[in-house]
Amino acid sequence: MMRTFLFAMALAFGAVDERLVMPMPDGFIVAHQQTAQTGTIEERVPQGETVRKWSRMITILKLNSAQSPISYATSFEETVTGACPGTRARHAPTRFAGRDAVDGRMDCPLNPDTGQPETFFYRALTSGSAIHMAQVAFRHVPSAREEAWARAQLDAATFCAAGSRTAACVR
What global pTM score does this model have? Predict the structure, then answer.
């Protein structure tokens, strides 16, 4: 689904210091980071895995886009559904860090590129002219315990506004 992430970056063209941060789960490493004119991406996988061969992946995106979270979620879901026929996608509006946001889940029954199922849990929010998204993905159908873990990862995210002195935000 790497091309899905690249497409997600291409969907968009904020304030420089605003970002979504997440604690690093035990046993995970940063496997890929990239900054481009359209935004930034960071992909985390369990130690010993790669962005091509992973069992779980956490992705943090910032896309320079004025899209609403609902509009972005719809585009993202259409992209994944196009790449993985039979994908079940659902999302709901919410608020996160005082901003409009969307929480969603997508279940790809069989990714044609890998021959494996993939499930994504994600949260997208808006800030000025940027969309921020945190995503937790599995290359299998997650158990109830794994789903709870994924949601806990998303809930542990912190939105860092420009100038924030919150401990998680200080570099």
Answer: 0.88
Residue-wise DSSP of the chain:
-HHHHHHHHHT----TT-EEE-PPPTTEEEEEEEEETTEEEEEEEETT--SSS-SEEEEEEEEE----HHHHHHHHHHHHHHHSTT-EEEEEEEEETTEEEEEEEEEEEEETTTTEEEEEEEEEEEETTEEEEEEEEESSPPPHHHHHHHHHHHHT-EEE-TT---GGG--
Q: How far apart are CA 98 and CA 135, in angstroms?
A: 19
pLDDT digits (tens, 9 = 90+) for 111-155: 999 999 999 999 999 888 899 999 999 999 999 999 999 999 999
What b/e sequence results for 97-135 when a residue is b if at least 16 CB atoms lie within 10 Å of its CB, and e otherwise? eeeebbbbbbbbeebeeeeebbbbbbbbbbbeebbbbbb
- On the 0-12 / 13-18 / 19+ scale of CB atoms within 10 A, 62 is buried
Give the number of other Cβ atoms within 10 Å of residue 2's Cβ.
Answer: 11
User: For 165, phi and psi rounded to 5 degrees?
Assistant: -105, 10
Domain spans of the chain?
2-169
Homologous superfamily (CATH) of 2-169 is Mog1/PsbP, alpha/beta/alpha sandwich (3.40.1000.10)
